[in-house]
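Following up on my earlier thread - several people asked me to post the actual chain instead of describing it. Fair enough. Here it is, all 317 residues.
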Amino acid sequence: MRILVTGGAGFLGSSLVEFLVEHGHDVTVLDNFWRGRKENLQRIEQSITLVEADACLSSSYQRIANPETIDIVYHLAAINGTKWFHEEPRLVMDVNLNSTLRSLEFAEQNNCRYVFTSSPESFGESEVMPLGADESAVFSAPQHHQRHAYGASKYLGEIAVQHAVRKGLDARIVRPFNGYGPRLLGNEYGQVVSMMIKSALEEGVVIVHGDGSQTRSLTYIDDLVRGIVASGDIEDISGSCINLGTEDEISMFDLAKRIASLVEQETGQAICVEFGNGYPGDSKRRLPNLLQAQNHLHWKAEVSLEEGLLQTLRSML
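Reply from S.P.:
Thanks for posting it. Predicted structure:
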């Protein structure tokens, strides 16, 4: 098949592109490398068509050769990273909303199947667990904090996708729950697993935000890619919202201790765990409802947290 991946040079996007290429697909990547990195595609750069452009602009899609031959659009282009939500909320909303609207328009114009990568953040501060069935999203008053710039943009993205479905587009929504693995950004604008590992390796300390009692269900990159590809392959599931994650929860304090132990094991370096300030609006718990993934995709996460953390750490050594 001929496939377009927006945001294909990012953490999740580049791993998806690699998988698709390895399985014989003709892949076009649309990325402006604002968050994604060219080196993420280095191993397969001769096997893909790269359009270096902004996924928020209609003109970028006009650079895709023979657009009518694209079979599937996997839309991953977005700004993620908690620090961005608070520092540049309007930029986050701009990129996430406009890239979704423009890629949807492209899919509609060329009759492509469309897979939107959303997020459990689209439910805001919902305390219904497991999360991600048909419950309502809950967002706090905007004057409290700007964290929901990201979650609300994904919520609106889901609305746009469902509207396209009602207009006849074959579209699906996937919500990866806290993906991690090699290539995940570990700087101050990155995500928790790589941030903890990077800090342990460089500073000898792992910082836990808040009191560390908040829990997450971490999902290894290889499992997420399998689920995203399956969501694009399966017939007759247009309009479905599929959560990709694991039912194994871990607190951020326990995650920090586990990472510290692994780094000590691999490097012989003594690592300490310290507490730091958290971010306003941080979710207390995030456990996915996986019924749709099981029923529609026959998918479940296979990589254990111990194995996934070890592979991530070794990629950063």
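The two ends are 36 Å apart (CA to CA). That should answer part of your original question.
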